[in-house]
């Protein structure tokens, strides 16, 4: 896994119970995704110029332990599967002070033709970048369930 984001659970990101609100987890994971994709030569800021975009089609978040206001956070990310048109990636949100796993996201993103507005094949340059970031065999689900690493779909 590579470091993809750092943040703070500022009070204004928390709900009335004093812990990070649900939408803000996804914002943090989205920031990490941008950095992961940049590490794979798939930065949306660059690929959009060639007509290639990226569209998330699946998110599975597991909330492991409470994130209280003021917590220092870091996210590490990895690619877990590269298909023909999609990439599945895992993100772990951890407490920066004690490394406690706070939440994890398993996401699937498809290569998206911005003209045709449809899924398309991942170009070779980006495919090679994603494959270079494939993590060692681990379960696909953040809950610990098994699954394949690399497939054609």
Question: Could you characterize what this model shows?
Answer:
The chain contains three helices and six strands; from the N terminus they run βααβββββα. The chain has helices at residues 22-39, 44-47, 124-132; strands at 2-8, 52-63, 72-82, 86-95, 101-113, 118-119. The chain starts with a strand and ends in a 21-residue tail after the last helix. With 153 residues, it is of the alpha+beta class. The longest helix is centred in the N-terminal third of the chain and has 18 residues, at 22-39. It has one domain (2-132): Hotdog Thioesterase (Thiol Ester Dehydrase, Chain A), CATH 3.10.129. Strands 1, 2, 3, 4, 5 and 6 form a six-stranded antiparallel sheet that branches. One of its GO terms (molecular function) is fatty acyl-CoA hydrolase activity. This is 4-hydroxybenzoyl-CoA thioesterase. It comes from Roseiterribacter gracilis. It holds the Pfam family 4HBT_2.
> Describe the biggest sheet?
6 strands, antiparallel
The counted number of beta strands is: 6
Structural class designation? alpha+beta
CATH topology: Thiol Ester Dehydrase, Chain A
Q: Runs with pLDDT <50, length 5+? A: 144-153
**General shape:** elongated
Head-to-tail CA distance between termini: 23 Å
CATH superfamily: Hotdog Thioesterase
Number of domains: 1
The level 1 CATH classification is Alpha Beta
Rounded mean pLDDT is 91
The CATH architecture assignment turns out to be Roll
Strand content: 35-45%
Helix content: 10-25%
The H-and-E topology, N to C, reads as EHHEEEEEH
Radius of gyration, in Å, reads 16 Å
Number of helices: 3
């Amino acid at each position: 896994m590579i470091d993809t984001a750092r943040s703070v659970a500022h009070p204004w990101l928390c709900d009335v119970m004093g812990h990070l609100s649900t939408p803000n987890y996804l914002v943090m994971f989205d920031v990490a995704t941008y950095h992961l994709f940049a590490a794979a030569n798939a930065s949306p800021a660059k690929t959009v110029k060639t007509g290639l975009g990226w569209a998330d089609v699946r998110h599975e978040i597991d909330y492991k332990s409470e994130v209280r206001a003021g917590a220092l956070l870091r996210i590490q990310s990895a690619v877990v599967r590269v298909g023909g048109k999609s990439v599945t990636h895992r993100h772990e949100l951890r407490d920066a002070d004690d490394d406690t796993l706070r939440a994890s996201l398993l996401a699937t993103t498809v290569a998206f033709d911005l003209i045709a507005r449809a899924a398309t094949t991942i170009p070779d340059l980006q495919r090679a970048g994603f494959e270079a970031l494939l993590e060692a065999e681990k379960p696909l689900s953040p809950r610990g369930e098994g699954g394949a690493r690399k497939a054609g779909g």
